[in-house]
Each structure stands twice: as C-alpha cells, then as structure tokens.
Write a structure and sequence with these properties.
With about 500 residues, this protein is of the alpha/beta class. Helix content is about 45%, strand content about 5%. A six-stranded mixed beta sheet has the order 1-6-5-2-3-4, with helices on both faces. Helix 2 links the parallel strand 3 and strand 4. Helix 16 packs across helix 17.
C-alpha cells in the first residue's frame, strides 16, 4: 500500500479500476487546487510517483464552454498557470497548461494522458460543474482515480450532517479541529521530491492539445481576445496566481490584520483581507492563510479552547478559542466557520446517493433549500408591492436611485468583488427590487457569478442564500417583502459605516 502523509479522510477513490504499476507516469489532474504549495492533492500524486518510481505529469486545463466564462475569469486562472509553469519546471515535473481554443476542443485530453498513466489524482471541490466532470471522468479513465480534498482546515467529510447554523457548526469544528491541525499539508511538496525526469508528451497529444502559448501565459490581450468567451466582462487590475496570492496574504497579515476587528466593516478603512478570489481559484490554501496568521500570533495548538487559561471546552463561542488576538479570532471566524460552513453544505447537501443525514433538500443552490421558516415568510409576502422594480439589465449597469447600492455594483464591475458588508446590503436590496424572492435569487446568482472573481463558490452561495434566511433566524418586526427575514437598508448603512472615500471612488 502507498505510504502517504495525506489523511485518509481527505481521499476518495472514485472508481473500481486498478493502479497500473507498469504505466508511464502518475497523472495529477489539477482542477481546483491550482497551486504547488499546501496542496494535499499534489502531495498525494508525488507520493504515488515516488512509490511507483514513475515521473509526474500535471495537467491543468481551462475549458471555454463553462457558464460565465469570460476574459475576467480566464485571465485570473491563466495568471496562475504562468506561476505554476515556472514552479513545476524548476522541480522537474512535466506540467501541461491547456487552454481550450474552442468549446469541446479539450475533449479526449484527459483520456489520452490517463491511458498511459499508473494512477490519476485530482482535486475534490464540491461546487459548480466540477463534481459532474469528475464523476464522468471516473467512469471513463482506465486506471484508479483518486480525489483529494484540500479545501479547508477541516476535511469536507469530517462531519456526518449538514449544519444549519454557524453556531452548531462552530461547536462541531471546535471539538475536532485539533486532530486535523495535527495533519497539515506540506508547505512545499515539490521541495526534495526527487521526481524522475519525465519524457515530453507524445507528439500526437502535444499537437492535438498544445500547451497554452507564451503570449497567452504572458498576458497578451490579443491572445485572450481570440478565445470564444465573454469579452464584455474584462479582466480586473488584480493579478491572479499563487505568487500574487502570497504577496496579498503577506500584506494583509502585516498591515491589515491588526485592524481587522475594528475596521473591517468600514469600506473607507481598507481592512478586509482581499483573499477570497485566491481562495476560490485555489491559488491560495486555507492552510497557508492559517499558517501565516498563526506565525504572527505565536499560536500554540496545545492552547486551543483554553479561554482564560481554563480547561478545553468547545463552547461554540466566536471569541477566545484560538488563544489569539481579537482581530485574528474575528478573521478566523470568517476563514473557518463561515467559509467551511458553505463547503459543508455542498459536500454533504449535494452528495451522491443517500449520503449522510441531511438538513435540507439535496441541492444547496435550489431556492427550496432555504429553511422552512424563510420559505414560509417569503411566500407570505411574495405579492407585496415593491417600492420599485429594476430589470437585471438596470441592476447590472448600476442604474438604480440608490447611491450606495450603485457604488457596490460598480466595485463589482470594475474590480470583481464587493466590500464584505456592502455585499449583504447589495443582496437585500435586490430582494426588495425584484418581483419575487425566487427571481431575486436568480438575479443575485447571475450578477455574482458573472462578475465576481470569488463567485461560483460554496462561500459565495452561502452569502447569497443568507440574504434569504439561510444560516439566520427570524427577525421582528415583520415587514413587507421581507416578512421576518433580516432587513437591511441603505439609510442605516450610511449611518453606521465610513463611506465617504468609497462613494467618491465608486459612485461618482
């Protein structure tokens, strides 16, 4: 049996095919954890390559036919491909970055590489089209296909149920997090990997599915413009890739983390982490983020849960569990509780087969997956008169009479993200301005997934569904349109937040 440091709970074998010990190489199909650092999937593939004495081949492919494919999303992913190309070349692995020139052109590439492989390892990401893609591949590849989870500090299948509140999930992870922090991914699994040199790809494969051109990897706008994707959504100034992600993480920990608790909600303060695009595309690992914060805070695992120096107790409290500063604890609440709560919903709520005990309908992207109380109150107020109704075109263009909302939408259009607090208001106003709650959900998903760098992700779906009541409770007084779903207004937001510079930047 292979000797691997990757925890068994993070590995799923997806077919009944054998490992072909006489194959030419081990294939790592990089689809979600698009990085060489803190990556359990890459670590597992390297372990197989060393066990079998075979070279490592890495395929990182980018389709053009997925929904919302655009210059913005493609550019961000391709930036990461350029970083990965340099890292794998230095380590002696054969890295093949493939960008589809036409819809369907990449069909057959995985099969061609798997036909010569000993084993295929890929990433376990429970959202968007990736679960269907991997399930299809598992039925077709002629060798063992393993899927490895590098999504968060907790394995996505550490839980046996879907959690419906942040507090219930927090109590759970506080009880088990210690054992999972004892099994961390290697910071740099390529360091000292001693991989066997790989031969070039067979000419027939390289000719039919050539690597991305130097121009495309280098950021040439003309090369990107030649692809059949949505050119109406342009790239943003923010560069993608693991190198840029590492730089942004270092700046956050050094400059903004100390201010995070007091200033993160104020757009003018610029204290948010800015890490969500990199986490979404797998250019940055939650483990790497945690390690950077832990170093700064001089974290000790043996102090977990000993608030005030007392005994360990998973109380579910948002404060004091980590033994770090209040700002660091507030940031980890977002990184661990809220981010991984979304992964819990997608990994278990949309699981294949009967699966574990569920707390809602199977697909967490369905309107009906909202809590019963939220469905009931929204249904009761579905026909309430809206103060105004905007088309999706007007909303996309930031053409409303609400200056704060328009600024948030302009930030999304220009930069591919919305300030954390304003994203909540953004969603609440869409609920208020669309004919029905179900249509509001469709509009939020469309705008977020088309323009946001961190869209199409369990965490962004959590935020969208929170607007409609998921992970929340009923709030009084009962209001028109909202019923007992939590209400937010631009007037209250303007009173609470520092917005002068933000509005000058985005609402001029």
């Amino acid at each position: 049996m292979i000797s691997s440091s990757v925890p068994d709970l993070r590995i799923r074998t997806r077919n009944a095919m054998p490992v072909r010990e006489g194959g030419d190489h081990v294939l790592y199909w990089m689809i979600a954890s698009r990085r060489t650092r803190h990556n359990f999937g890459l670590e597992r593939a390297i372990a197989w390559a060393r066990e079998l004495g075979r070279p490592l081949v890495v395929l990182e492919a980018l389709r053009c036919g997925y929904r919302w494919a655009s210059d913005r999303l493609h550019r961000f992913v391709i930036d990461g491909m350029a970083d990965n190309a340099r890292r794998f070349a230095a380590a002696g692995a054969l890295y093949h970055p493939y960008v589809e020139p036409a819809d369907g052109a990449g069909k057959g590439l995985l099969g061609a590489l798997a036909a010569r492989a000993c084993v295929v390892v890929t990433d376990d990401y429970p959202c968007f089209f990736l679960p269907r893609m991997v399930a299809s591949a598992a039925r077709q590849v002629p060798v063992r296909l393993e899927q490895v989870d590098s999504n968060g500090l907790l394995p996505v299948r550490a839980a046996d149920r879907v959690f419906t509140t942040a507090r219930s999930f927090r109590i759970f992870w506080q009880r088990v997090i210690g054992e999972h922090l004892a099994a961390l991914p290697a910071a740099d699994p390529l360091d000292g990997a001693r991989l066997r040199p790989a031969a070039p790809l067979p000419r027939a494969i390289a000719r039919r599915w050539p690597s991305a051109s130097p121009a495309l990897l280098g950021g040439d706008p003309a090369a990107l413009a030649a692809l059949p994707i949505d050119h109406a959504v342009p790239p943003v100034p923010l560069r993608g890739g693991p190198e840029a992600a590492g730089e942004e993480l270092a700046r956050f920990v050094a400059e903004r983390l100390p201010r995070y608790l007091d200033e993160r909600d104020h757009p003018d303060a610029g204290a948010a982490s800015g890490l969500s695009p990199y986490l979404h595309f797998g250019h940055l690992a939650a483990h790497e983020v945690f390690a950077a914060v832990a170093r700064r805070e001089r974290f000790r695992r043996d102090r977990l849960g000993r608030a005030g120096g007392g005994e360990k107790r998973p109380s579910g409290s948002r404060e004091g569990f980590w033994g770090m500063s209040p700002s660091a604890e507030a940031f980890l609440e977002q990184l661990v509780t809220w981010r991984e709560l979304g992964f819990n919903a997608f990994a278990l709520g949309a699981a294949e087969g009967d699966g574990p005990r569920l707390s809602w309908k199977r697909d967490p992207t369905d309107y009906e997956s909202l809590p019963d109380w939220a469905l009931a109150t929204l249904k009761k107020h579905e026909r309430d008169r809206r103060p105004r109704v905007y088309s999706i075109e007007a909303l996309a263009a930031a053409a409303t009479d609400d200056r704060i909302w328009n600024a948030a939408q302009v930030e999304l259009l220009r930069e591919g993200r919305i300030h954390n607090y304003l994203r909540m208001l953004w969603g609440k106003k869409i609920l208020e301005w669309t004919p029905t709650p179900r249509e509001a959900l469709e509009v939020m998903v469309e705008l977020n997934n088309r323009y946001a760098l961190d869209g199409r992700d369990p965490n962004s779906y959590s935020g969208i569904f929170w607007v409609l009541g998921r992970y929340d409770r009923a709030w009084g007084p009962e209001r028109e349109i909202f019923g007992t779903v939590r209400y937010m207004s631009s007037a209250n937001t303007a009173r609470k937040l520092h917005l002068k510079e933000y509005l000058a930047r985005y609402a001029a």
